[in-house]
């Protein structure tokens, strides 16, 4: 029995999808132009597909699970379950209009034409907002639609916003925040579910390790309790005596997001020789 996973063949999600599997200790021979391959050390088979097709393959049980953007999952609206956010492929689906337009709120879009490759998501958003707009589905090059008189507005994926800017557009509404997710079929048998649980255990350990750093520092003993008070730690920090008397070495784990603020306070409290080290895997 193998778990069949569908990932993007080439494009923005391919590299990070392969990397995540590798970080989970799964060795995949990535033969050039191979559409299907197996791992040598985990019962998993990988199918390389267009991202648009992944939800359908999972609904049809041709693949058991898949890595794909939430934007594609909601647009395709197939019978699949979203199991875990993967932390890469972050972007947003936004509405943009020409930079010269005066835009105050969504009511601007009343009676206007919006060009998009995401008609399902945009229609739902317009309904929720009570706006009656015409949705014009196109399959690419969405950004040029306003400039050539095809539409008044567009709805497209944005990460930095530089493509919009270059095309004389400004972002006015966020319709959806998206990242890559793991989806699964609703009909996994027990054995496949067990394999998925095993994979998920590893994925969570990898994600956690990315959000955390290991920190080591030297503290004068008279400042030890103040310094320990600043450190969260998985349970509590580890404290070891240094060879030099009156000093201790303190080890702990820090959230990446709290990192700079805590480092500053540690320095102020008298910590020295602070080392911050990446964590490869983190099991709690
Ligand atoms: P495919 O050939 O597989 O259909 P594609 O051209 O549809 O590829 P990509 O452009 O590779 O797709 O994007 C894949 C996914 O990457 C998107 O669906 C989205 O979830 C995510 N993504 C992240 N940032 C961006 C961005 N700036 N623009 C577009 N997609 C992004
Ligand atoms: Mg696609």
UniProtKB/TrEMBL annotation:
Ways its activity is controlled: Feedback inhibited by histidine.
Keyword NAD tagged: no
Organism, scientific name: Segetibacter aerophilus
Catalytic activity: 1-(5-phospho-beta-D-ribosyl)-ATP + diphosphate = 5-phospho-alpha-D-ribose 1-diphosphate + ATP
Pathway noted in the entry: Amino-acid biosynthesis; L-histidine biosynthesis; L-histidine from 5-phospho-alpha-D-ribose 1-diphosphate: step 1/9
Gene name for this UniProt entry: hisG
GO MF annotation terms: ATP binding; ATP phosphoribosyltransferase activity; magnesium ion binding
Domain spans labelled ATP phosphoribosyltransferase catalytic: 50-204
Listed cofactors: Mg(2+)
Principal location listed in the UniProt entry: cytoplasm
Protein name as it appears in the record: ATP phosphoribosyltransferase
HAMAP family noted in UniProt: HisG_Long (MF_00079)
First-level EC class: transferase
All copies of domain Histidine biosynthesis HisG C-terminal, residue ranges: 210-281
Family statement drawn from the similarity comment of this UniProt entry: Belongs to the ATP phosphoribosyltransferase family. Long subfamily.
């Amino acid at each position: 029995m193998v778990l069949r996973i569908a990932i993007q063949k080439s494009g923005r999600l391919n590299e990070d999808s392969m990397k995540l599997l590798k970080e989970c200790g799964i060795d995949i021979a990535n033969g050039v132009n191979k559409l299907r391959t197996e791992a040598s050390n985990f019962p998993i088979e990988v199918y390389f597909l267009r991202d648009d097709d992944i939800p359908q393959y999972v609904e049809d049980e041709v693949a058991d699970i898949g890595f794909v953007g939430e934007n594609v999952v909601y647009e395709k609206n197939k019978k699949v379950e979203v199991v875990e956010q993967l932390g890469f492929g972050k972007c947003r689906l936004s509405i943009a209009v020409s930079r010269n337009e005066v835009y105050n709120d969504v009511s601007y879009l009343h009676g206007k034409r919006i060009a998009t490759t995401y008609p399902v998501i945009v229609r739902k958003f317009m309904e929720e907002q009570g706006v009656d707009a015409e949705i014009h589905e196109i399959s690419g090059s969405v950004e040029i639609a306003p400039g050539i008189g095809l539409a008044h507005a567009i709805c497209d994926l944005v990460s930095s916003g530089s493509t919009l800017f270059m095309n004389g557009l400004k972002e006015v509404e966020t319709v959806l925040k998206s990242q890559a997710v793991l989806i699964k079929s609703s009909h996994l048998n027990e054995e496949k579910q067990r394999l998925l649980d095993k994979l998920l255990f590893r994925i969570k350990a990898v994600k956690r390790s990315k959000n955390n750093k290991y920190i080591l520092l030297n503290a004068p003993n008279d400042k030890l309790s103040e310094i320990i008070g600043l450190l969260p730690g998985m349970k509590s920090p580890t404290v070891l005596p240094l060879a030099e008397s009156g000093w201790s070495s303190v080890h702990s784990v820090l959230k990446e997001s709290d990192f700079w603020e805590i480092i500053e306070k540690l320095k102020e409290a008298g910590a020295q020789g602070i080392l911050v080290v990446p964590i490869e895997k983190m099991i709690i």
